Amino acid sequence: MAGSYLKNLFTDRKFLICLAILCAPVFFGIIGVIITYHHFSSELPSLAQLEQINPKLVTNIYDMNGKIAHEYFVERREWTPFDSIPENAINAVMATEDRAFYKHWGMNVWAIPPAVIQSKLRGTQIRGASTLTQQLTKLLFLTPERSMSRKIKEAMTAIRIEQTYTKQEILEFYMNEVYLGGGNYGFQAAGKYYFGRPLDSLTIPEYAVLAGMLKAPESYRPDRHPKASLERRNTVLYAMYDAGYISKEDYRKYVATPIVLAEKEPETGNGLYYFEEIRKYMEKKYGQNSLYADGVSIYSTIDPDIQNVADSVAKVTVAKYRTEFKKKAIKNLKLAEKYEMDKDSVYAHFDSVYALFKKDYLASDNGPNPKKWRYPPEVRYHDAQIAMVVIENETGAIRAMVGGNDFNEQPGSSFKPIVYSVAMDNGASPCDSVNDAPITMTDETAANGMWRPHNSEKNFEGMMTLRKALYRSKNIPAVLTASKYGLSAVVNYARAFGIRKAPLVAVPSLALGSVGATLLEMTSAYTVFPNLGTRIEPYMIESIEDKNGEVIEKNSKIESVVMKPPSAYLMVDILKDVNLRGTGYKVTASGFNHPSGGKTGTTNDYTDAWYIGFTKHYTMGVWVGYDQAVSMGVGHTGGNYALPPWIAVMTKIHKGLRQKSFPVPQGVIGKGVCNITGKLAGEFCTEKTYCLYTTNNYPDEVCDGDHYKVRTKSADDATLFSNKGSIEHSEGAKKTRKMF
Predict the structure, then answer these.
(1) Burial class of residue 298 (count of CB atoms within 10 Å of its CB; 0-12, 13-18, 19+)
(2) Active site members
(3) Which DSSP category does 74 fall into?
(4) Among candidates 351, 320, 295, which has minimal Cα distance to 58?
(5) What distance in Å separates the CA atoms of residue 96 and residue 220, rounded to the nearest whole number?
(6) What is d(CA 608, CA 621) in angstroms, rounded to the nearest whole number?
(7) Run of H or E residues at 320
(8) Residue 608, φ and ψ in degrees, nearest 5
(9) I need a surface site. Which of 161, 247, 460, 553 has the fewest CB within 10 A?
(10) Helix (H, G, I), strand (E, B) or coil at 8
(11) Local confidence band at 266 (pLDDT 50, 70, 90 cut-offs)
(12) Percent of the chain at pLDDT exceeding 90
């Protein structure tokens, strides 16, 4: 009977017409949805894009104490997994943004009609009704415009996201992607920025502050708009109470709580050269994306205290030297007379006056030969520059850097310790003698194939010990020593010491540092001495971790034996004399009382001024020069210009450190030597010197007291402290003077 009724009903024409009229909206709605989907589908993110959401993260550089020292980012964001996001932070967001988050499938259809009605009544664009998933869609893939087409694409993409990810994964993306003012993306970065603490250490009112910023991040920033931020926070707290996340008592307590922000330390700009070196390394090895987007953690060796001292001293030193060079230029270029100003006024407005001088005089003074210029480069003004490197001897860790590692200059006399290291490692003693007298040598790098070296003082002092030759920084003895023990050996030792970038040619001028070397290379080379012959590869990065904490690079201590320990100790003993009574005497005169050694360096034309020195704790190198390869003028030596900032930095960073002497290794032997004959002192020798030797390399003949053949005053003036001959001609020496 029922079947007969239905059959009659579906044959009733009027019923069918009514049914068609009623179903038409549904039918056309389905058709509309299909057409809309096909229209916008090409503009929606692909499934592959949805499955590979890679937000840009902050790269943090940590100092040696594990504190963040620098950041690289396009968007300041620290990714926090869902399990590490506090529940109250999520509750604050859901209370105000999407209470039905766990119930909908990407869009909340029940929230749309009220939003549309409100829009029509107020005559505004449609606002609200967006779920967290829709907001995430806008953050990741769409533009912020408010239009019907964007809303449709937003809803369609939100549904796709819900089909691709779990609710927890969507919340994780949202909490890490949202913008919260001040360049901060995500709750973790914002929490640290505004409150100075990680997200899991914040309070419910502080979560409410952050959640309140979602509506208008810059307008509700607590650091810039405290009143608006407080009102918005209280609105969020009420929403949390209304949603049942907090009690009424807690709500009343929280709204009475003031917003307390973290005190931000002023950015000093310290360590910028250091971090620039890390940036170049990261970009070269891992690429820009890794540095600016992957959120890696770089654990560096920088010591913030030492770096701050180095930066401070460098700033003061450069300002002092630039003042000196400006006054020098005013005098040499007669700027006061040219522009009819007194000298003080010229100095006060130096940049403007010198810019005018360049236009009026230097623009046309630019012929092909600078020596024929009316105003040659050495009388013009150039900005003084400084570079510093501090290395911890025991580890090889670079603790501070100023001026970067791009300076590739001639180390001059600071190269000489490598020359004398070859000698000591091949049987020489600091008491061996060398003749400081005029010489002419073949040198293929010289203009006519011949080279005549001279001392910086333009004089010659005759026979002297190797010790005196080095602490007085004599050029000719260094050249003779290099030639005696082999120029090719000097090249090999220089490479082993870490001078790797510069081309090294086995010619006599090599002994005077006529090579291009970086300050880092030279400073690292000097760590061989306090480490008693062992070179530890310098490094700036302890380890690198990806955003998940997985180690992707870890540096370990790399050591290599460069010299035998006894030979290295002899060099330490000589270089201590440099700071006691040689070109580095200002170290001792300053009152710096830690046992130390070092060497000044000055090129013949005064273009580069160096000082590299060490204690048992640290080795520090300083370079001073112009921003161009131009002479600074006579008297601008390493002792006068590079040494003072070394003393200033090392004095401060050694404050409170225990004084450490340099231990004497086995194989170092002290013998009393007759000043007159150079033999082991006998019972009739009244003028004798205590000399250091390495095993089997000391005189084996005892003086018999016959002192009439040779007469000298002291060890420094000795004419005979070596009877071994050159390494090339003494078979006996060859047996004991092998490298390593």
Answers:
(1) buried
(2) 97, 413
(3) S
(4) 295
(5) 15
(6) 13
(7) helix 304-332
(8) -125, 135
(9) 247
(10) helix
(11) low
(12) 53
Q: What DSSP assignment string belongs to 231-279?
A: HHHHHHHHHHHHTTSS-HHHHHHHHTSPP-PPPPPPP--TTHHHHHHHH
DSSP, collapsed to helix, strand or coil, labels residue 626 as strand
Task: Assess contact for 420 and 570: CB atoms under 8 A.
Answer: no
Residues 6+ apart with CB under 8 A from 595: 576, 615, 616, 659, 660, 661, 662
CA 637, CA 643: separation in Å to the nearest integer?
A: 9
* 426: phi then psi, degrees, rounded to nearest 5: -120, 30
Q: Are 380 and 397 in contact (CB under 8 A)?
A: no
pLDDT of 738: 28
Cα distance between residue 362 and residue 338, in whole Å: 13
- Round to whole Å and give the CA distance between 672 and 677: 12
**Look-up: residue for tokens 């909340």?**
108
Mean of per-residue pLDDT scores for the chain:
83
Is there a contact between 72 and 279 (Cβ–Cβ < 8 Å)? yes
Tokens encoding 79: 């990714």
Of 681, 550, 562, 660, whose CA–CA distance to 614 is shortest?
A: 660
Tell me the pLDDT band of 135, cut-offs 50, 70 and 90: confident
Q: Hey, what's the torsion of the CAs at 690, 691, 693, 698, to 10 degrees?
A: -90
Examine the pLDDT at 225 and tell me if it is beyond 80.
yes
What DSSP letter does each residue of 362-375 carry, written as one string?
ITT---S-GGGSSS
Q: Are 552 and 544 in contact (CB under 8 A)?
A: yes
Q: Take residue 565 and report the two structure tokens written for it.
A: 């320990």
Beta strands per DSSP E along 502-579: 517-518, 534-536, 541-545, 551-554, 559-561
Closest CA to 107 of 155, 139, 62, 143: 155
Phi, psi values for residue 518, rounded to 5°:
-85, 160
For 506-517, give one letter per residue: b (16+ CB within 10 A) or e. ebbbbbbbbbbb
CA distances from 253 to 111, 217, 220, 343 (A): 32, 25, 21, 68
Q: Does the pLDDT at position 115 exceed 80?
A: no
Q: How far is CA 480 from the centre of its chain?
A: 40
Lowest mean pLDDT among 128-142, 146-160, 167-181, 624-638: 146-160
Count of H-run helices and E-run strands, the chain: 27, 22
Element (H, E) at 541: strand 541-545
Q: How far is CA 708 from the centre of its chain?
A: 63
Token digits for 426?
A: 């091949």
Helix (H, G, I), strand (E, B) or coil at 472: coil
Contact of 599 with 578, CB cutoff 8 Å: yes
